[in-house]
Specification:
alpha+beta, 38% helix, TIGR02117 family protein, CHP02117
């Protein structure tokens, strides 16, 4: 028992150290050269375990993600102001629309290994400031790179991104097959961090939790 407790204490200490260093060590280490005026305002949305990226829509963005409207998502509605993108574990994402519906198997897969999916929702105005919303201005070229990153996260079939039939929380969101495996070390928040780095922002070196990602973003941007 004493050896087990010692092992658990070492494991917890190692995890705390890894998360701390992953937050405090910036990635990239040095700020990138300025790439133009910050004319696109993107948002990072968070809850206790997950982060999403909200992209402001215009005609060009709607055309680029036309496949969303083709799948029945009302992305063309005039009241839509943002497309909200998130990447996550298939079982947990699809089977846990609310905390009250949490099940053991999806949680286990989220902590071990699972396939990934993209979740896309439409949103109207998102108020700022808000404790769960962080806004960042990026240049037009960085914004285009961010859209490339998001688009590349969708798994492509013969007819484009593969929508998952009968998988949605409401009429205002859809799920798609995604690229890459999901696990506790490379999860939804590390995807968000990688996307933000593509947009020219700095994150922590490893950000598995929303709180560590948010802290690193405040420190280095």
């Amino acid at each position: 028992m004493r050896k087990l407790l010692r092992f658990l204490a070492i494991l917890v200490a190692a995890l705390v150290l890894a998360v701390s260093l992953g937050t405090l060590v910036p990635r990239p280490l040095w700020p990138a050269a300025a790439a133009g005026e910050g004319i696109r305002h993107i948002l990072v949305l968070k809850n206790p375990i997950h982060t999403d990226i909200a992209i402001p829509v215009d005609d060009e963005v709607r055309r680029r993600f036309r496949f969303l409207a083709d799948a029945g998502l009302p992305s063309d509605a005039p009241e839509v102001r943002y497309l909200v993108f998130g990447w996550g574990g298939r079982a947990f994402y699809l089977e846990t629309p609310t905390w009250s519906q949490l099940k053991a198997l999806p949680a286990f897969k989220a902590l071990t290994l699972d396939a990934s999916v993209m979740h896309v929702a439409v949103a109207g105005n998102i108020p700022e400031p808000h404790p769960d919303v962080a806004g960042f201005d990026v240049g037009e070229d960085r914004f285009a790179a961010l859209l490339d990153f998001i688009e590349a996260s969708f798994q492509e079939g013969p007819n484009g991104p593969i929508v998952i039939d009968n998988a949605a929380y409401s009429n205002f969101d859809r799920f798609y097959e995604a690229n890459g495996p999901f696990n506790a070390l490379i999860g939804c928040n590390t995807w968000t961090a990688a996307a933000l780095r593509t947009a020219g922002l700095r994150t922590g070196w490893w950000n598995p939790l929303p709180v560590s990602l948010g802290l690193s973003m405040r420190l280095y941007n």
